[in-house]
Amino acid sequence: MDKNIRKGAFSLAAGIIILPAACSHGNKPQDAGKQLNILYIMSDDHSFQTVGAYGCGLMETPNIDRLADSGIVFTNSFVANSISAPSRACLLTGKHSHKNGMTDNSRIFDGGQQTFPKLLRNAGYETALIGKWHLTSEPTGFDYWNILVGQGEYYNPVFIDNGKRRVIPGYATEITTDLALEWLDSRKDADRPFCLLLHHKAPHRTWMPDLQDLGAFDGEDIPLPENFHDDYSGRPAAAAQEMEIGRHMDVVYDLKMADGEMEIHTDTGLEEYGRAMYARLAPEQKAAWDAYYGPIIKAFKADSLEGDELAEWKYRRYMADYMSVIRSLDRNIGRVLDYLQESGLWENTVVIYTSDQGFYMGEHGWFDKRFMYEESFRTPLLVYYPGGFRGEVDALVQNIDHAPTFLEIAGASVPEDIQGESYLPFLRTGSEGRGERWRKSLYYHFYEYPGEHAVRRHYGVRTEWYKLIHFYGDIDSWELYDLRNDPSEMHNLYEDRSYRRIRKKLHRELARLQELYDDTCIIEP
């Protein structure tokens, strides 16, 4: 790992970001009447902790950071519901989950409803979607779409090209990028503005690296988070989850220990799927895979690790694979940025990089997402706006804000029922665009329980420095965190008498947001 990491004051355990002072304004902003192209790049489960521009020091992402160098890093970017399909529905509609109907991954997205791609088409844009969709129903509102089936496979994935299925040999991140560049290169009406949603599978579980990236982080000193061995004291919902690396991460499915001798077995119910992932590799892919993972499997068998030693070994294997997957993601984003610059599109294209939610890099001993705690609630957001601001913006933004922003960029009207707010003023002038009317708090609601990882339903409010969460159903509990003094969210202060005034304020703000967004929060056991 290159140690020349972008310097920023960030505590990995803390989850609070303070980036260097804002840079300068860019060139003269684009003419308001000119329709800019929009390239929205979204990965799946990419943690802000592993984006170089956020200064965490885990790894470099030089190509993603090109957007930071020429645009904006949003240091307080969040989601409305930290799980894949609901997050994507929030993006498309600009509405919270209870309004767009996609409350959890078991739902089918209603493609007949209003979405920003449809509104952009009405405004004269050519629209396209390439990569991960994960909303079950067929995409609507796009002139062209070519999507992965379900979660998609890393190797030799199946794509649905405007309704026609085909297996494409190779690695998903590179294939998705190829398809996007082919679409950009084949556009017949170059004068028509476009909006391309480029959605990568990576780095979603099970973190299968590209062959050229196998072993990229071997031998690196990957630090163990300070709260890796969290005992979840005072947080019953956190204690009840099933997403601990030590107890719940499957060594065959997640960590590639599918031995040819069939001696390694697991009890999570995922072993069969892990072996099936290996089986779909082509012969030459298997040869490279075996050459790398074979010695690791052999050593794993010989060591017979248990307890904390096993948990920490699993953590470091997980992190090495996860970051290796991001190497490919970053490299391929570089290919797209190079194309924009070489083709002359760079000066007339807004480029957004984000993830559908955050992810745990071992904090609290976890992988996955779902909780309203910082690591999964927070998501990276870097934006290049031609002629716009360059630097950092600390305003509270959320993924429901993309839709109105894109519509305003296009010069289209924003329907009144869209719940997000346009962050376009920040793209033009930085935090000067905030104004007194910009939101001071965020609303969150997670619904998927019973479900994978056993994270209980909960909703809550986050302000600049405090967070109030209500877990409901079979676990009914309130949690309050002082993010200045406890950024790792280890100490639930809800019953602390010294926080009574703050607690009352947060309850009032939570009630205000529920009324604003018309969320009745029907509580079911």
Summarize the entry for a quick read.
By secondary structure, the chain is an alpha/beta fold. 30% of the residues lie in helices and 15% in strands.
As laid out across the biggest beta sheet, the strand order is 9-8-7-6-10-3-11-12-4-13
Shape: globular
**Helicity range of the residues?**
25-40%
On the 0 to 100 scale, the average pLDDT is 93
Beta-strand proportion: 15-25%
What is the distance, rounded to the nearest whole angstrom, between the alpha carbons of the first and last residues?
47 Å
Report on the structure:
This protein has 525 residues and is an alpha/beta fold. The protein is 30% helix and 15% strand. It has 14 helices and 18 strands. The strands form four sheets. It has a ten-stranded mixed β-sheet with strand order 9-8-7-6-10-3-11-12-4-13, with helices on both faces. The chain has a four-stranded antiparallel β-sheet with strand order 15-16-17-18, with helices on one face. Mean pLDDT is 93; it is low at 1-32.
Give me the secondary-structure topology.
Blueprint: E1 9-10, E2 17-18, E3 37-43, H1 64-70, E4 72-74, E5 77-78, H2 84-93, H3 97-100, H4 116-122, E6 126-131, E7 144-148, E8 158-161, E9 164-167, H5 172-186, E10 194-199, H6 236-240, H7 245-248, H8 271-279, H9 283-303, H10 307-343, E11 349-355, H11 374-377, E12 381-384, E13 391-393, E14 397-398, H12 402-410, H13 424-429, E15 442-446, E16 458-462, E17 466-471, E18 477-482, H14 500-516
Parallel strand pairs: 3-10, 3-11, 4-13, 5-14, 6-7, 6-10
Antiparallel strand pairs: 1-2, 4-12, 7-8, 8-9, 11-12, 15-16, 16-17, 17-18
Helix pairs in contact: 5-10
